[in-house]
Amino acid sequence: MLIDSVEKMLLESGFLVSSGFGCFDLMAKKDDPMALKVLMNIDSFTHSEAEDLKTLSCFLGMMPLLVGDRANRYRLEESVVYERFGVPTMSPGTFECFVNGVMPEIASRRGGYSVSVDPEKLSGAMNMADMSFAELSGASGLSRKTLYKCRSGGAVDGRTCEEISKVFGESLNVAVSVKKEYENSAREPRSCLKKNVSRQLTRMGLAYSFLSRSPFNLVIREGGAIVSVVSHDRKRLESSAGVLQQLEEGFGLSAVFITAHGSGRSIEGIPAISIGEVSRMSSRDEFLRSMDDRQF
Q1: Residues in the chain, pLDDT under 50
Q2: What would the CATH number be for the domain defined by 113-174?
Q3: Residues 137, 286: Cα–Cα separation, whole Å
Q4: Does domain 192-293 match CATH 3.40.1350?
Q5: How far apart, in whole angstroms, are the C-alpha atoms of residue 184 and residue 209?
Q6: Cα–Cα distance list, 265 to 52, 113, 194, 262, 270 (Å)
Q7: Tens of pLDDT along 156-184?
Q8: What is the three-class DSSP state of 39?
């Protein structure tokens, strides 16, 4: 029900939405594309799912977000950005505000909540009021050390921002940034088929990463991004075709199946290439041409 609610919210806000499973439940695109995991209890979010979401961010340029109602010991508060395994996390209400352009200003950190004053807004307000740090300290009751921390953009408690805002009659808070840069935490493939695929992709100079909890288990970065399922099980490939087709049509991704044995030129409209064929290819260009030739 929560996934359906979030999907409806996105559609009503003009997003293109695609369903998934595993590390993400929804992908959404309007301006910046997002990969969303939606859970009632965010403590059930696993490290493996987080690593896959961050890998999607690296390879597909999608912002990873976790949306949930509560943790084991508390409900998620509104206008607060939490974090689980490095993935920004927020309540459904906060997320609804976020997708409609109202950015949260409070971050949950170890030891409590924190906010930040916008240094440029603070300097501008002080100039307009012709106020020194000594005068602002006297007017707000805050130490100069705290005010200098605010000017440098350091995180402070909510009361500090409130006292500064009272002096100038406006909020000077800066929104919490939920956009992060993630490094690829490449995983070693386990099956013989995936190890062979890994060798061939490396030989052709393609950047790639395997996933463990996703409708597709391989992402390749080449111009645009390629999503793939590597498997010897035709039913597994067929069951993934619908999701891959949605990502091709709505998100500009390319899709390919890499199979253990010949399975025809395509499966459910997705190009299919056997590992034997891949091993005989001399370059990445030949691999890409083969995908194009089998595209329907």
Answers
A1: none
A2: 1.10.260.40
A3: 67
A4: yes
A5: 8
A6: 29, 55, 20, 8, 9
A7: 888 888 889 889 888 888 888 888 888 77
A8: strand
